Amino acid sequence: MLPQLSVVTLGVSDVEVTYAFYCRLGWNALQYVPGEVVFFQVGHGIVLSFFRNDHLAAESGATGSAAMAPVTLAHNVESPKDVDAILHEAAAAGGSIAAPGTQMSWGGYSGYFTDPDGFRWEICHNPGLSVDAEGNVTLSVLES
């Protein structure tokens, strides 16, 4: 796995309140799905997303005793095959697969692992996310 951070996802209780707050600060959303998630570019090729707490926990496999702080780190890769390979690499290195690679309803392919301290990493193939030479992120809506 390359040492790179693509997306930081923070769990929030109310996406609309969060969206309005950051827009009032002058941030422009790359993508906003009311009640679900909002994405903002925060640096060269880096995205900060705010995802509804309960949906983040369910998607990342954090249920019951596997409770989590409402944050994940994301690493985007070129293909679903790469997602699965990195999940297995993380498990072999001492991590745990929290959610296996799965075709997502929004059109991508994603899985999660936890490191030895419990931090969750999403490994994701998102064909709608691209970064140009200047580091500008484009998030396209995918057909599910």
TrEMBL record:
Gene3D superfamilies in alphabetical order: 2,3-Dihydroxybiphenyl 1,2-Dioxygenase, domain 1
Occurrences of domain VOC (ranges): 4-126
Superkingdom classification of source: Bacteria
InterPro entries: Glyas_Bleomycin-R_OHBP_Dase, Glyas_Fos-R_dOase_dom, VOC_core
Protein name per Swiss-Prot or TrEMBL: VOC family protein
Upper classification of the organism: Bacteria, Bacillati, Actinomycetota, Actinomycetes, Micrococcales
